[in-house]
Structure formats: C-alpha cells, structure tokens
Amino acid sequence: MRTYLGYITIFLLVPVLTLFIFLSYQEWSSAESPYRVLDERIPIDSIELAQTSYMTAANGKVISELSDGGKRTYLKLEDIPLFLENLFIVSEDQKFYEHGGVDLSGISRALLINSQHDAIEQGGSTITQQLARNVYLNHDRTYNRKLSELLYAYQLERKKSKPEIMELYLNAIYFSNGAYGIEAASQLYFSKPTQALSKAELAFLAAIPNNPVHYNPLEHFDATKNRQERLLKQMVAEGELERDEYDRLIKSTIRLNLSTTVELYPDYVTYVHQELKNLVASSEGLSKPLQSSDEAVRQQAEAELGKKVEKLLHSGVTIHTALDTKLQTQSKTALQANIGGNDIEGAIVVIQHHTHELVSLIGGKDYKKNSFNRAYQSYRQPGSAIKPLLDYAPYIEETGADINQLVSGASYCSNSYCPRNYSGDSYGMVTLRTAFAQSYNTPAIRLFEKTGIKKSFSYLDAFDFKRITMKDHHISSAIGGFEYGMSPLELTNAYTSFEDGHYQPARAIMKVTDQDGKILYSWKDKPREVWSENTVSKMRKLLHEVTVTGTGRKAYFPTAYIGGKTGTTNDVKDMWFVGQTANYTTGVWIGKDRPANLQAMYARSPHMLIWKDISQTAEQ
C-alpha cells in the first residue's frame, strides 16, 4: 500500500516539478546580468567636460573667452606634472591604483586625519567617486546621492583606465572663482600654463579643491597656504618628497598674478556670435528649415541649431576671425570723435574686398556686448547711396552707356510723384558723370525707368538684401525710398562688387578649429558675377568723381584709388558714405535710433570725415 501511495505521489509531483523547472528557466532566461543593467542605466562610454572656447583676431590675439560662467581648458595627463598627480593621490586617495572605485580603509584613514585638524583635510570618497560626483551628480549630502556616487564610481572603474580617470579628475575638479580643472586654475591665479608652475605653486593650487570656499585664495589666502604646507608634509610622510626640499618649498613665496576674462571689441564679437550660428546652420543643412514658413519646422530647426552651437562652444574650439584690431580701434575713435556725446549714433563696416574678410564692424559709439548692433541689425533708408547699385550700374550694364552720355536733369513728375533735386533746382541735359557726382535725383530716376523697374531690381537679387520685397518695386526706390531699407553691413557688402564685378559676402569667421587645430567649420562661399568688366571700369570712374568734384569731396585723400557715394534721406534723418580704396570697402552710417533731423550737423559732414580717418589708417 505504501509503495502504491508513493508511486501515486511521485506521479502527481512530476507535473508540479516540471512546471516549477519550466517557470524557473523562464525567469532565469529573462533575467539580465547586473553589468548589462548598469551599462543601460549608467552609460559611461564618453565623458565630455565643458571647456572654454576662444575667439581670436586676425593676428592670433584672443579677443573673447566663451563659456557659461566657468572656465576650463582640458589637458592631457602627459601634460600635467607628475608631482601634482602624486599630491592628490597622497591627500585624497592613497590606494587609487589598487581599489576598484571604493576604498573602505581610506574612509577610516580620512576620519583619523580629520579628527586631528579643525578642517576636513581628507574626504572618504576616492578620486573616482569625486570624479563621478563632479561630472554626473551634485554635492548634496544624502544617502541616495552617495549610493549613486558608488554606482557611478564602479562603472567608471569598469569603463576607464586609471590614467584616464586621473586625467578626467584633474580636469574636472573645481578650484574656486569659476576655474575648473588645473589649467584654468593655473591661468587664473598665476597667468601661466600648468607646466610652468613651480612645485610650491602646484601644491598651493592642490590645496583648493578640498574645500573651494574655505580655501579660496582670493579670500582666505593664509588658509590656502597653511593647507599647502600640510599637503607637502604629507608628501614627506609618504616618501614622495625629501625633507630638505619640503623646507625649501614651504618657504617659497606665493605671489598671485590674476588673469581677467578677455572680452574685447564687443561690437565685432557680438556679430561673430550671430555669424557662427549662420555658419553652423549652413554647414549642417539647417538654413532652409530656419527660413520655412511652417512655424513648427522653423522652431524645430532653431532648437536643433541651438543645441549644435552650444555643444560646439562647450568643446573648447577656437573661432578664428578676420578682425583687424588696429582698424577696429581707429573706427571706434573716429566715430566717437566726430559725433560727440549726444543721442546721435553711428555704424561702420570695413571689408577687405580682395579676400572678402570683414575686418572691422562698429555697432554704436558706446556699444555694449549683445545690445542692439546698428551695423547689421538696423535697417535704414539708403538715400542716394543706392543709386550706384540700382540706377547707374544696371543702366550701364544693359546699354553700355558712356559716362559722358547726356541725361535730363529737369524736373520730373509721374502720377503726382514729383521728386526734386536736393538743391531744388532744375537742370538741363547733364552727363552721367556730373549727375552722379552731384547726386542729382531726377537723372537717376530717368535712368532707372529706362532700364525698367523689374530689370533694375534683378541686379539687387545678387546681394541678399533681407528686407527688400516686391513692395519696394516703385519709382521712389531709385533715390532710396524703400519700405525698410538695408543695414550698413548689407550696403557695404554690395559695394564690394565694384572692385571686380563679383559679389561674395564678407565673413568675419575664417575657420573654427578644435584643440588639435582640425578645421571643423569654414565658409564655402563662391563669388557671383554681377557686373561686367566694362561696367566696373565706368562705375569706378564715377565713384572717384564723387570724391574729387562731387558731394564726397570731404572724404578725399591722395591714394592709389578712392571712390564713394554719399547718401542723405529726407529731412537729413540718415547720412551715409560708402566707398572704396585700393584694398578696402568701407561704409559709414550716421543717424538717430528714432529717426530725426540732423541738419544741424550736416554741414560738418561727419560721415565723410569718419570714412576718411578710417580709410587713411587702412591704407597705411
């Protein structure tokens, strides 16, 4: 009977056992390894520390430091003195090359050392834990943060070698006053690279990260110096430093030589920031989406562009610009000297037209960074400064007319539109040369009509004037009557076409390089032919005549070539002079932000005097 019951029991248990094995196998199969879970939850494939980017002038001088408030310049471990590495190992993590991220004996040692001093001299966290905290976490004193720190430290040890961890650590830690990493600290406090620091100076800097507030050398120099000496004493105790060298190092005088954030030429720098966005957008295929009529598409493109530019600037790039610092200074001086301390403003653009480089840009007489930049953000009526581009050059291009050809300077009326010449006089038949030099209005309108409105405006298409629309296709545009007008940068850019007949937008940015000098971005512009050689030759003669016998005589000075055109709007609300010398095309605009009459200063011709001051400097 027992045997029978046993068989029955076994028979009944077999399916139960089979089910148990089947379910266990399923659970086991679906279980993930802890390594796989960690890799998914805590990916550590690459660590990119935000670094300071730089903007340089044409001569290589740094003109702007670009960061989010903190500075960091990444150094390879081989470029960091071994003495500094040993200082941190002795003071922070003596078993760094032995443990797997956590050191229990180190915690005990830290408690013992800290109990002997009033301040915290050692933390229980390893260098790997500190790196995890600085890169991924915050400094809250909570159990959750501490647990996360341990997990991140474990992952760092799995994914990175000890030298890689040490390199990241020395570049990540905070040295107070906005300096992150040893190189930024070295430059901030001593104005020299890390490799040029003495051992005493290295130890002084190594004293700061333990408590950047308490050991801030700008506020607590003595506390920092005292900790430096204790660190050096620890080095002696661990056999990393000889006693006699210790005695010499603690007696070395520490003299801070603070560097300041470089922020020069704000007018130009502000424009470069805008051009950088345009460059990245053009290179990354975002230009068309940014101009889309679909708001959702445009917003998505703007967000993507913002992320790309932010990532680029955090990677420690160098933006190489064409800025001529001498010309920039001269331009600002000339503007301030000629318009005085009133509410009259101005803008200046200087382009090296052979290379298409924007070498100087002034956005206002007392411009502050990121404020309204009149050189490229202000759109004003061009007055007679538009005549070379819209009236004379298209007419000569289409007809081949000679500059001594006659045109009527008599009064003009069309459908109740009756513009007058500036003097109010009516002239008879005059040559194109005279009409251009004296800036008569009625001859310009007649040339514009003969060419045809549509054909004349087709030549402006090459210049990328952003706010010229079909609403501007009317007679009054021939003498500068636009709905919005154009910026000084746009108009000066267009005048460069009178150098050789081709147009190519002037660029401030020559290239953007990474820390190894590799070119990441550069413009790929190609010149577009606008005017024939014959037209250019005649236009240059006309522009020259303006400065010799015409309205631009005050801009004249003896040089290889000089030519330009004045522009004045109704009630003298805007004064322009745009012209060329042998190597440069320069545009000057004078006016008020809220257009108002400038007749009181018109006779002094400040726009021409400014242009002359700048151009003489440029051609020296």
Automatic annotation (TrEMBL):
<dbReference type="GO" id="GO:0006508">
    <property type="term" value="P:proteolysis"/>
</dbReference>
<dbReference type="GO" id="GO:0009002">
    <property type="term" value="F:serine-type D-Ala-D-Ala carboxypeptidase activity"/>
</dbReference>
<keyword id="KW-0121">Carboxypeptidase</keyword>
<comment type="similarity">
    <text>In the C-terminal section; belongs to the transpeptidase family.</text>
</comment>
<dbReference type="InterPro" id="IPR050396">
    <property type="entry name" value="Glycosyltr_51/Transpeptidase"/>
</dbReference>
<keyword id="KW-0808">Transferase</keyword>
<dbReference type="GO" id="GO:0005886">
    <property type="term" value="C:plasma membrane"/>
</dbReference>
<feature type="domain" description="Glycosyl transferase family 51">
    <location>
        <begin position="60"/>
        <end position="235"/>
    </location>
</feature>
<keyword id="KW-0961">Cell wall biogenesis/degradation</keyword>
<dbReference type="GO" id="GO:0008360">
    <property type="term" value="P:regulation of cell shape"/>
</dbReference>
<dbReference type="GO" id="GO:0008955">
    <property type="term" value="F:peptidoglycan glycosyltransferase activity"/>
</dbReference>
<keyword id="KW-0328">Glycosyltransferase</keyword>
<dbReference type="GO" id="GO:0071555">
    <property type="term" value="P:cell wall organization"/>
</dbReference>
<dbReference type="InterPro" id="IPR001460">
    <property type="entry name" value="PCN-bd_Tpept"/>
</dbReference>
<keyword id="KW-1003">Cell membrane</keyword>
<dbReference type="GO" id="GO:0009252">
    <property type="term" value="P:peptidoglycan biosynthetic process"/>
</dbReference>
<feature type="transmembrane region" description="Helical">
    <location>
        <begin position="7"/>
        <end position="25"/>
    </location>
</feature>
<protein>
    <submittedName>
        <fullName>Penicillin-binding protein</fullName>
    </submittedName>
</protein>
<dbReference type="Pfam" id="PF00905">
    <property type="entry name" value="Transpeptidase"/>
</dbReference>
<keyword id="KW-1133">Transmembrane helix</keyword>
<dbReference type="InterPro" id="IPR012338">
    <property type="entry name" value="Beta-lactam/transpept-like"/>
</dbReference>
<dbReference type="GO" id="GO:0008658">
    <property type="term" value="F:penicillin binding"/>
</dbReference>
<keyword id="KW-0378">Hydrolase</keyword>
<dbReference type="InterPro" id="IPR023346">
    <property type="entry name" value="Lysozyme-like_dom_sf"/>
</dbReference>
<dbReference type="GO" id="GO:0030288">
    <property type="term" value="C:outer membrane-bounded periplasmic space"/>
</dbReference>
<comment type="similarity">
    <text>In the N-terminal section; belongs to the glycosyltransferase 51 family.</text>
</comment>
<keyword id="KW-0573">Peptidoglycan synthesis</keyword>
<dbReference type="InterPro" id="IPR036950">
    <property type="entry name" value="PBP_transglycosylase"/>
</dbReference>
<dbReference type="InterPro" id="IPR001264">
    <property type="entry name" value="Glyco_trans_51"/>
</dbReference>
<keyword id="KW-0511">Multifunctional enzyme</keyword>
<dbReference type="Pfam" id="PF00912">
    <property type="entry name" value="Transgly"/>
</dbReference>
<keyword id="KW-0812">Transmembrane</keyword>
<keyword id="KW-0472">Membrane</keyword>
<feature type="domain" description="Penicillin-binding protein transpeptidase">
    <location>
        <begin position="346"/>
        <end position="580"/>
    </location>
</feature>
<keyword id="KW-0645">Protease</keyword>
<keyword id="KW-0133">Cell shape</keyword>
